[in-house]
């Protein structure tokens, strides 16, 4: 068994301030005995414009700060940030990395599913105009919690990605996010519990919360869900903080043995 932590906070366009908050959460999680901390999507910054985002992404102080904090606290950390692309200088990758307790990066995932909606006489939200879609599923990475499969925010709506990661050996799925308030209220907990139940995995969902700027706010409610769909821990509605939960791989094994859904799947019928 190992203690896990998920964090939430309100990132702004001030990279140094966001770095300080994340390093503080890392220290607090380690002091509570957590072996691994999961931080939200876009923990380095949330910008007010595409131009500002492109400018801020060149500031490397965030990753360096988090790596040093992980090393100092002797804790594994998963965190989301904006990654530059040398081939496309007008867009960024939405990236999640996992670093070990020495601060070394051991896994790297770029968000596959982008939210593009352009409705006639309705809303137009085109994530692909500022973000480059990832092009590969990353195999689960071995951590003190077990094998962790990486996804980001909108990926949670595509169950086939979670099922694929379970097939590759995932014990834990992680969804660092910045859900909108409207979709969060409607779907956040339901989606996370569904992914946990159908894959029989623990789910770690760190989250952005609060009003980042005049144009954007996030739902929060960072949580940990067990393989039975039980919410083990959840952050408070309105503030920065941590939630904790124990990952018990023996318990996970019993659930999979008593309800062996993966052996009952019929991919011959639904490829």
From TrEMBL:
Residues 2-249 form the CN hydrolase domain. InterPro entries: C-N_Hydrolase, C-N_Hydrolase_sf, Nit1/2_C-N_Hydrolase. The keyword Protease does not apply. GO terms for molecular function: deaminated glutathione amidase activity. GO terms for biological process: amide catabolic process. Coiled coil: none annotated. The keyword NADP does not apply. It comes from the Eukaryota. Keywords: Hydrolase. This is Carbon-nitrogen hydrolase. It comes from Hesseltinella vesiculosa.
């Amino acid at each position: 068994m190992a203690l896990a932590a998920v964090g939430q906070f309100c990132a702004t366009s001030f990279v140094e301030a966001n770095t300080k908050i994340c390093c503080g959460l890392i220290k607090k999680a380690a002091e509570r005995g957590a072996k691994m901390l999961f931080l939200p999507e876009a923990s380095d910054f949330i910008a007010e414009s595409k131009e500002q985002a492109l400018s801020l992404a060149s500031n490397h102080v965030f990753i360096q700060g988090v790596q040093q904090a992980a090393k100092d606290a002797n804790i594994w950390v998963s965190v989301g940030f904006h990654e530059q692309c040398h081939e496309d200088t007008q867009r960024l990758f939405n990236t999640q990395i996992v670093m070990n307790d020495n601060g070394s990066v051991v896994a790297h995932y770029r968000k596959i599913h982008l939210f593009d909606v352009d409705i006639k006489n309705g809303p137009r939200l085109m994530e692909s105009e500022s973000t480059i879609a990832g092009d590969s599923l990353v195999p689960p990475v071995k951590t003190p919690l077990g094998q962790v499969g990486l996804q980001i925010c909108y990926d949670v709506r595509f169950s086939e990605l979670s099922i694929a990661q379970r097939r590759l050996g995932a014990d834990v799925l992680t969804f660092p996010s910045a859900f909108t308030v409207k979709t969060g209220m409607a779907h956040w907990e339901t989606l996370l519990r569904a992914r946990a139940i159908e894959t029989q995995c623990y789910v770690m969902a760190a989250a952005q919360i609060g009003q980042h700027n005049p144009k954007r706010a996030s739902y929060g409610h960072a949580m940990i869900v067990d393989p039975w769909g039980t919410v083990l821990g959840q952050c408070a509605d309105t503030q920065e903080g941590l939630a904790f939960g124990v990952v018990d791989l023996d318990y996970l094994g019993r659930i999979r043995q008593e309800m062996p859904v993966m052996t009952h799947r019929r991919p011959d019928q639904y490829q």
